[in-house]
Design a protein that fits this description.
heterodimer; A: mainly beta; six-stranded mixed sheet; four-stranded antiparallel sheet; 0% helix; globular; B: mainly beta; 50% strand
């Protein structure tokens, strides 16, 4: 598609349940990022995929969080045993990173608003 | 270490007045600089970027930003603010010599334009 697509747009889940968030990046974009944004706050980096390289997981807040990217395209962010503090908007972005001239910005999806009750 | 600072959590401007949202950065090489905007309940949108060339960069919605190497700044400006400009603005920087291609983000500045 023309943009980065995220689903679902909204998710309400009970504490302790697992959730999966999906990101479909722009075709051909080699880099994919997951960020978390709490209400009215800045961006918290979670994880970065670049091509076939091992992902940069340095931003994942706990071992309840994991992500995978299949075939260099679609990515799934999984949160196990959700907690109330996981409530946030989860943003996915893709980019043409990795090129000799890394002068491209990111294209963001609209995000998934996760509410843990 | 690379970093971006947006010193103001919030900026209040009257409609029709000029606005400035400040951004300073710290990178070891020549920076690539970006501004993004997030309207309420919307995703982040790219506004403008500086890569090389003219220090004054023009972007979407009438915004512009000036790269000042000596002051390591990339302030966002608009000559006449609109109420619809009210949003959260993020500055970001990338050092193209760094093999880590990630953007480094500022904490964001909430811009409120009052009628």
């Amino acid at each position: 598609g023309a943009g980065v697509s995220q689903s679902p747009s909204n998710k309400v889940t009970e504490k302790g349940k697992d959730v999966e968030l999906r990101c479909d990046p722009i075709s051909g974009h080699t880099a994919l990022y997951w960020y978390r944004q709490s209400l009215g706050q800045g961006l918290e980096f979670l994880i970065y995929f670049q091509g076939n390289s091992a992902p940069d997981k340095s931003g994942l807040p706990s071992d309840r969080f994991s992500a995978e990217r299949t075939g260099g395209s679609v990515s799934t962010l999984t949160i196990q045993r959700t907690q109330q503090e996981d409530s946030a908007v989860y943003l996915c972005a893709s980019s043409l990173d990795g090129l000799p001239l890394a002068n491209y910005g990111y294209t963001f999806g609209s995000g998934t608003r996760l509410t843990v009750v | 270490a690379q970093s971006v600072a947006q010193p103001e959590d919030q900026v209040n401007v009257a409609e029709g007045n000029p606005l400035t949202v400040k951004c300073t950065y710290s990178v070891s090489g020549n920076p690539y600089l970006f501004w993004y905007v997030q309207y309420p309940n919307r995703g982040l949108q790219f506004l403008l970027k500086y890569i090389t060339g003219d220090n004054l960069v023009k972007g979407s919605y009438g915004f512009e930003a000036e790269f000042n190497k000596s002051q390591t700044s990339f302030h966002l400006k608009k000559p006449s603010a609109l109420v619809s400009d009210s949003a959260l603005y993020f500055c970001a920087v990338r050092d193209p010599t760094d093999s880590n291609y990630q953007l480094i983000w500022g904490a964001g500045t909430k811009l409120i334009i009052k009628p």
